[in-house]
TrEMBL record:
EC numbers on record: 1.2.4.4
Catalytic function, reaction form: N(6)-[(R)-lipoyl]-L-lysyl-[protein] + 3-methyl-2-oxobutanoate + H(+) = N(6)-[(R)-S(8)-2-methylpropanoyldihydrolipoyl]-L-lysyl-[protein] + CO2
GO biological process terms held by the UniProt record: branched-chain amino acid catabolic process; generation of precursor metabolites and energy; response to nutrient
Record's GO cellular component terms: mitochondrial matrix
Signal peptide from the UniProt entry: none
Domain Transketolase-like pyrimidine-binding, residue spans: 88-263
Subcellular location, principal: mitochondrion
Subcellular location: Mitochondrion matrix
Species, as recorded: Gigaspora rosea
Name of the protein described by the UniProt record: 3-methyl-2-oxobutanoate dehydrogenase (2-methylpropanoyl-transferring)
Cofactor(s) recorded in Swiss-Prot or TrEMBL: thiamine diphosphate
Statement: the UniProt record of this protein carries the keyword Zinc: no
Gene Ontology molecular-function annotations: branched-chain 2-oxo acid dehydrogenase activity
Superkingdom of origin: Eukaryota
Length: 410
């Protein structure tokens, strides 16, 4: 771990030289962070997230018992199938995944803004104390630097787990991720790679985030060959998909819908397990309409399906969670649409050039003769993300129901 220690010292010295505290009084600055840490340690069971997503607690997709959690074909092939589970919310499941990653891989390190004392969402809470300051450490407020640093560490053979504190601030790192990380293997003819890089970032609406803390920017990155993009819907999914992302030999951006950090609670297997990347999951089978989403939008779509099936007699909807957005499971979606003849896609990001456009075009090419109605997209509006009008901006259950009704009655 000498290389890891050297890297952490370099970043620490850079911080001392160039990074100045927000507070003019250094004592206030120190007391603030000590108080924050004390609060984090004391508050082990955080309350549910505020906001508009009340659907999560009542969701049939949330696994509330050990039997439900382990009754999963993808877990049957792992060593957790007969193991124990523990009640965790999503940030705790993500924390557990990173603990396992650090424990099973001596080259793994975690770094980002404020991660050493747990991060603003507490996802790294306790990891510094467990693994030391050379493996879990803070960086300056420079997203470009965080991404570039991670690329350098991964190029030297480390497993680099970087955190961008909010997905809205990933854009300063765009050049490093898109032009360096994504192309590193290609431009070296396969001699070098940065496959050990994973970039975690909280994303999407939270009920009060405004236009700089609510965006869902996956569409910007899905245009880039060489990257993998993942977005989980629940604690079980988050732990398994994050471990798979960290161990995958390609750079991965792991977007975490932050409204689910506390609102999504499940019985999560306590042992080490991975869930497959680039494989979608059918959450509900149906024969009349295929509905596709990912992340927190899955719970909105579940509610919309309940409304639709209640109001339209005999209607049967099939719901698919993509999970991995790039490369996405086009075969599963196409097979479903060939059966149902109808497709509705929904995500929080704006509609124009959103990933729903790629899904729509690909399914049109593969399933044109089977389609019974135009494909419907239910997305965020083509405006900056508003604060006071957030509930009108996000694609809610009624808008999704209207799209389902549209394709059924076409």
């Amino acid at each position: 771990m000498q290389t890891s220690r050297l890297y952490s010292l370099i970043f620490r010295n850079f911080t001392k030289t160039y990074y100045k505290p927000k507070f003019g009084n250094l004592n206030i600055h120190k007391n603030y962070f000590h108080a924050t840490r004390a609060t984090n340690e004391a508050d082990k069971t955080a309350p549910p997230a505020e906001g508009f997503m009340t659907e999560v607690a009542q969701s049939k997709f949330v696994k509330n018992t050990r039997e439900e959690a382990l009754n999963n074909p993808e877990l049957e092939e792992t060593n957790v199938a007969q193991g124990e589970t523990k009640k965790m919310n999503m940030f705790q499941a993500i924390n557990d995944a990173m603990r396992i990653a650090l424990d099973t891989d001596d080259t793994a390190v975690i770094f980002g803004e404020d991660v050493a004392f747990g991060g603003v969402f507490r996802c790294t809470m306790g990891l510094t104390e467990m693994f030391g300051k050379d493996r879990v450490f803070n960086t300056p407020l420079t997203e470009q630097g965080i991404a570039g640093f991670g690329i350098g560490m991964a190029a030297m053979g480390h497993t680099a787990i970087a955190e961008i504190q909010f997905a809205d601030y990933i854009f300063p790192a765009f050049d490093q991720i898109v032009n360096e990380a994504a192309k590193y293997r290609y431009r070296s003819g396969g001699i070098f790679d940065v496959g050990g890089l994973t970039v975690r970032s909280p994303c999407s609406a939270v009920g009060h985030g405004g236009h700089y803390h609510s965006q869902t920017p996956e569409g910007y990155f899905t245009h880039t060959p060489g990257l993998k993009i993942v977005m989980p819907r629940s604690p079980i999914q988050a732990k398994g998909l994050l471990l798979a992302s960290i161990r995958d030999r390609n750079p991965v951006i792991f977007f975490e819908p932050k409204i689910l950090y506390r609102s999504a609670v499940e019985q999560v297997p306590i042992d080490d397990y991975e869930l497959p990347l680039s494989k979608a999951e059918i959450l509900k089978t149906g024969k009349d309409v295929t509905i596709v989403g990912y992340g927190s939008q899955i719970y909105i779509l579940e509610k919309a399906i309940q409304i639709a099936e209640k109001n339209i007699p005999g209607l049967s909807c099939e719901l698919i969670d993509l999970r991995t957005i790039l490369p996405w499971d086009v075969d599963m979606v196409a097979k479903s649409v060939n059966k149902t003849g109808r497709l509705v896609i929904s995500h929080e990001a704006p509609q124009t050039s959103g990933f729903s456009a790629e899904i729509s075009a690909s399914i049109m090419e593969r399933c044109f003769l089977r389609l019974e109605a135009p494909i419907q997209r239910v997305c965020g509006w083509d405006t900056p993300f508003p604060l006071v009008f957030e509930k009108f901006y996000v694609p809610d259950a009624i808008r999704c129901f209207d799209a389902i009704k549209e394709v059924v009655e076409y």
